[in-house]
Design goal:
Layout: E1 9-13, H1 19-29, E2 33-38, H2 45-58, E3 62-66, H3 71-78, E4 83-88, H4 90-99, H5 104-114, E5 121-127, H6 138-157, E6 160-165, E7 168-173
Helix pairs in contact: 4-6, 5-6
């Protein structure tokens, strides 16, 4: 897929690499209305505390949308020229799709087809999970494989791609 019409930015990195902070700065620096699409779900107290802390850290300048499954529908619903939208994160979305037994290939295709049509500036965050050892169980291997395929598709459909390590961005595309 060509990124010629895309305004999307893909931010990829490991856990606690600084990717979310970097992505938030990309959105804030646009001066556009800030929207945050959270794909995570609060399954336990620790995750509820994490979500609350992230909201507090972002402050009142962000409008938050919680969307664990129907990401493309949510993005389409809030798509507008005057908005910058941060999606955090795609790997949690992959997990949610797997747990809901959704058609993953169709969901990925819908997202990557949407990216070049979006009017809003989209910044998508995801965890790089393919740099470590081969997982020891089938579900974890399927997750890693799905995430790797999605990352390739989103990178191809995005105008810019960054890899974040130790809080430092490496621009890979755009």
């Amino acid at each position: 897929m060509s990124s010629s019409n895309s305004r999307s930015v893909f931010v990829l990195g490991g856990a606690r690499s600084g990717k979310s902070r970097f992505a938030e700065s990309l959105v804030s620096d646009t001066g556009l209305e800030r929207h945050y699409v959270a794909t995570g779900q609060a399954w336990d107290d620790e995750m509820r505390e994490r979500i609350a802390q992230h909201r507090a850290d972002r402050g009142d300048l962000w409008q938050t949308h919680e969307e664990p499954i129907d990401l493309v529908a949510r993005l389409a619903a809030i798509d507008a020229d005057e908005r910058s939208v941060l999606v955090d994160c795609l790997t949690l979305w992959v997990t949610n799709l797997m747990m809901a037994e959704r058609d993953i290939a169709a969901e990925f295709a819908a997202l990557t087809a949407f990216l070049p049509t979006a009017r809003a500036r989209l910044v998508l965050v995801s965890n790089e999970v393919g740099l470590g050892i081969v997982p020891d169980n089938r579900m974890a291997r399927e997750f890693r494989d799905h995430a790797g395929r999605l990352h390739q598709m989103v990178a191809a459909a995005s105008a810019e791609v960054y890899f974040i390590a130790a809080g430092l961005p490496l621009k890979m595309k755009g």
